[in-house]
């Protein structure tokens, strides 16, 4: 598994799925229509997830909101969980940022954790975290895609910064697991009431124990 993997859309090239028109000059039109439909479907799915949650989302509702037929959705996403996973991963770039290296390991990790906690306790971020959790329980293949596109990159961000500071690999793995898992689990349990200060305090205690 590549440790530099970022979230990747399930469909590599939506436009390429549209059969080309016979005249070469007409090929752009169906591709534009495909992209317009794709954007509408993603926007509709995102809005409906926030309004109704994962359990309240249906392909029929997405199709109606996006103004497309159900078969258009199924052409690109074979199931509801796959569609939801793609939409969640498309938004994940706002969270999946590496821990910067300023030369101060403790401050770098604590600052990163503070931003993670702030994002996941915002109204939108917390809703998406709840949806991601429920979607992961629906199907194992969906859970695997969400782990690879969301959970693993968070873990690797912290672990790689610790390794860059010459922390032993096994300790770096365990510390990254404790930091990311501890914060995400606490937010899943307590929701938006979990404070950024608590997340940073937890991260500081763990990292300082590695460098003391």
Automatic annotation (TrEMBL):
A Pfam family found in this protein is TetR_N
Family matches, as PANTHER family: HTH-TYPE TRANSCRIPTIONAL REGULATOR BETI, HTH-TYPE TRANSCRIPTIONAL REGULATOR RUTR
The HTH tetR-type domain covers 35-95
Which parts of this chain does the entry mark as a DNA-binding region?
A: 58-77
Keyword entries, A-Z: DNA-binding, Transcription, Transcription regulation
Question: Molecular function terms in GO for this entry?
Answer: DNA-binding transcription factor activity; transcription cis-regulatory region binding
Protein name, per record: TetR family transcriptional regulator
